[in-house]
Amino acid sequence: MNEWIQHITEWLVEITQLDGFSILLLTIPLAIIQGVFGIFPFATLLMLHLSVLGIAKGLFASWIVGTVAGMVVYLLCEYFLADWFNRKWFKKIKKYHKWQESIDRYGVWAVIFLRTIPIIPNNVISFMSAISKMKNISYAWANMVGNLSSIWLFGILSAPIVFPGVNLSKLIVPYVVFLFILMVAFIIRHRKMTKKSAS
Q1: Where does the VTT domain lie (predicted)?
Q2: Domain that holds residue 156
Q3: Which residues in the chain land under pLDDT 70?
Q4: Distance between first and last Cα of the chain
């Protein structure tokens, strides 16, 4: 974790006297900056939410912040930053070419997968989605579900650090059920697409 950013964030919280969900007034702008430039890990904000709000509310706040930031970055790239993105990230996109093809082919499911498994930085996922064939409403849905999955998983991994002795089964069991539902939905959707392509 970037200690400098953590100290700055803690300093801002102390100066602004934000507590409870008002902390989002600070973390949403920081998440958007992180989403565009990727200068510090989103995990910094997630850990801050957990520290200030506790596990359940902290994860919920992180989901809101991640979803808003992901949508803002997507829209910025689609309407304003496409040229800048192509110049700055062109080489990285070449490296992630197969994932760009997956987003073009599987749409929301590729975004959900990439949000859950940290193979590609979140801001690059938003940028790649913006230049794909995906519709805005499809990305909005994938962004919400993908961020939920990502933050839930990170919560499972980080909660014992912030709250030693926490009962992780309350996070793990619902998460496994959530992943199972997603997997079933993907299989059903994939079969429908295969049948449509065959006919």
Answers
A1: 40-152
A2: 3-198
A3: 1-10, 12-13, 81-94, 96-97, 162, 195-199
A4: 51
CB-CB neighbours of 150 under 10 Å: 24
Tokens representing residue 128 in the block: 């790649």
Would you put residue 173 in left (φ > 0), alpha (ψ -120 to 50) or beta?
A: alpha
Residues with Cβ within 8 Å of 69's Cβ and at least 6 positions away in sequence, in order, are: 28, 31, 32, 34, 35
Residue 99: helix, strand or coil by DSSP? helix
CB atoms within 10 A of CB 7: 10
181 Cβ contact partners less than 8 Å away, ≥ 6 residues apart: none
Residue 181: HSE in the Cβ half-sphere, 13 Å Cα cutoff: 8
For residues 45 and 12, give the distance between their C-alpha atoms in angstroms, rounded to a whole number.
12
- CA torsion 105→37→46→62, rounded to 10°? -60
Report which of 150, 179, 177 is spatially closest to residue 63, judged by C-alpha positions.
Answer: 150
**What is the DSSP annotation of 4-51?**
HHHHHHHHHHHHHT--GGGGHHHHHHHHHHHHHH--S-THHHHHHHHH
Q: What tokens does 115 get?
A: 């949000």
The one-character DSSP state at 30 is H
34-91 tens-digit pLDDT: 888 777 778 888 888 887 888 889 999 999 999 999 999 899 887 776 666 666 665 6
Number of folded domains in the chain? 1
